[in-house]
Design goal:
Layout: H1 4-16, E1 35-46, E2 49-57, E3 67-73, E4 80-86, E5 96-104, E6 110-121, E7 127-138, E8 143-145, E9 166-173, E10 179-186, E11 192-199, E12 205-213, E13 222-230, E14 233-240, E15 257-264, E16 269-277, E17 285-291, E18 297-302, E19 318-319, E20 326-331, E21 334-339, E22 347-362, E23 372-380, E24 388-395, E25 400-406, E26 411-418, E27 428-432, E28 441-448, E29 451-456, E30 461-466, E31 475-493
The chain binds beta-D-fructofuranose (FRU).
Beta-D-fructofuranose (FRU) is lined by residues 38-39, 55, 66, 98-99, 115, 167-168, 223-224, 285-286.
């Protein structure tokens, strides 16, 4: 039975969504049908297609009572819009259906596990959340909430765990046939933990253990966990709130981190070995992954930052977009990510330039555009080897977005100061990169109408940023202080 609240959201998006012209949206990055989008939810393979749900407030371009919007795709690149899947319409989730995940049940139905939020006044008179975990089951289009909701609440928390910050279940089926879920929580030290739960039937859950904890080292509340094995390692992703800056590795505010280690389910549990940022750019949060039928681990994230959500074009009818889905691997203890290979199907004409000397500014024939998949390889040249190298994209007389490499510092800087945003927010981010063994630096740059994503040295480092530069600003140029040699391989991306 569809509630009035869900029907109202479906009617609203069906009426107003189609008013937004395609050219006012990214060409291949997922956006909400109308209104506001944040975290990816329920990213899953179901009945031969990839489903992507998202935190959704259709009625304005701001965060509000959370619904679940719904998209699906055969290839991660072209998304088909489906009607909203969940609305905040019960006593346990009336203040919001927060983030969660989805899997296929043995009987062929799809199970959604999400956080239901109810607001209450606490003993000090303040309104606070009560967060519980809830289920809904459906067929890829319509979902019915479980009459026994919530299935996990304050009773299931370990000692000291917070019932106010208990959210974002990521569920999967283990090799033993049982179901497991990781859930973000806040411990009595006021910082984040990841809780592991187990169930035989998805309805009755038991607490297993605390998988890992911030202990006030990596921010406060840990949101949106994911936990999976990859290339012989165990990976825990989470998005901490209130991080503080650490060198060029972690920036302040909301950040996504990747903890890599080993997993001994019967023994010590998760044994953390390395911690790194997931994306070193300006806009990336709450990543979630799925496993494709051919065994690839694919990650998608909200390409936005909570700290800059006020910076949006006036009267925009959609706000928030997803990153390009990325194929993950772990090499030498580091997380690597590259755009899904399906993107390559949309490559049009190739323009190649090899061994181009760059000293001062260079423009090259055929190298321009705003829907672009371009790889630039830079190497030192001669006695006056370059001290800095800049790639300008989305450029006209007044605008550009700059990717700058400083070999002496080993840093790359992403700078969207001149990308059309009329707000005094953080516009630059610098991070560490290292040249390949042969001294080259290789940058794959993916441009869509409203974003730049950079993948360094086959995915060792990734950095993403939203831009709002006018679409006519489509020049690309290269510039060096000193001399460099460069190869450029540029495809335009075509989405007819
Ligand atoms: C992360 C988050 C989640 C929560 C959702 C609410 O961005 O705060 O923890 O479930 O957004 O929209």
């Amino acid at each position: 039975m569809k509630s009035e609240t869900l029907q109202k959201a479906r009617d609203f998006e069906a009426q107003y969504g189609p008013h937004i012209p395609d050219e006012e949206r990214p060409a291949f990055h997922a956006t909400p049908t109308i209104g506001w989008m944040n975290d990816p939810n329920g990213f899953s393979f179901y009945k031969g297609e990839y489903h992507l749900f998202y935190q959704y407030h259709p009625y304005s371009n701001e965060w509000g009572p959370m619904h679940w919007g719904h998209l699906k795709s055969k290839d991660f690149i072209r998304w088909e819009r489906l009607p909203a899947a969940l609305a905040p319409d019960t006593d346990y989730d009336g203040s919001g259906c927060f983030s969660g995940s989805a899997i296929e049940l043995p009987d062929g139905r799809q199970l959604i596990m999400y956080t239901g939020v109810r607001r209450e006044r606490n003993s000090e008179g303040f309104i606070h959340d009560v967060q519980t975990q809830c289920l809904a089951v459906g067929d890829g289009l319509d979902y019915e909430k479980y009459e026994g909701n919530p299935v996990l609440d304050a009773k299931n928390l370990p000692k000291g765990g917070s019932a106010v910050d208990f959210r974002d279940p990521k569920v999967w089926r283990g090799d033993d046939g049982a179901y497991y879920a990781v859930i973000g929580n806040r411990a009595s030290d006021n910082s984040g933990t990841i809780l592991l739960y187990r169930s035989e039937d998805t309805l009755n859950w038991e607490f297993v253990r605390i998988l890992d904890a911030s202990r006030n080292q990596y921010g406060k509340m840990w949101e949106c966990p994911d936990f999976f094995s990859l290339d012989g390692n165990q990976v825990l992703l989470t998005s901490p709130q209130e991080m503080v800056t650490v060198g060029l590795e972690f920036h302040a505010g909301h950040e996504s981190i990747c903890l890599i280690g080993d997993y001994e389910p019967q023994g010590k549990g998760f044994i953390r070995k390395q911690v790194q940022a997931v994306d070193y750019g300006l806009d990336f949060y709450a990543p979630q992954t799925l496993l494709t039928p051919d065994g690839r681990r694919i990650m998608i994230a909200w390409m936005q930052n909570w700290n800059t959500i006020g910076a949006k074009p006036d009267y925009c009818r959609w706000f928030g977009q997803m990153s390009v889905p990325r194929e993950l691997s772990v090499r030498d203890g580091r997380l690597f990510q590259m755009p899904v290979r399906e993107l390559e199907k949309y490559r049009g004409q190739l323009v190649t330039h090899r061994n181009i000397p760059v000293s001062g500014e260079v423009n090259l024939p055929g190298i321009c555009g705003r829907l672009v998949d371009m790889t630039v390889t830079i190497r030192p040249e001669g006695h006056d080897s370059y001290r800095w190298f800049r790639i300008h994209v989305a450029k006209d007389g007044e605008h550009d977005t700059i990717i700058r490499y400083r070999p002496d510092q080993g840093t790359l800087k992403l700078d969207r100061t001149r990308s059309g945003l009329p707000y005094d927010i953080v516009h630059t981010r610098s991070f560490l990169v290292r040249p390949l063994a042969n001294g080259e630096l290789k940058l794959r740059i993916i441009l869509d109408r409203f974003s730049v994503e950079v993948f360094v040295n086959d995915g060792e480092v990734a950095a993403s940023a939203v831009i709002y530069t006018r679409k006519e600003a489509d020049a690309i140029s290269f510039e060096a202080g000193g001399s460099a040699l460069m190869d450029v391989e540029k495809y335009e991306l075509l989405f007819e």
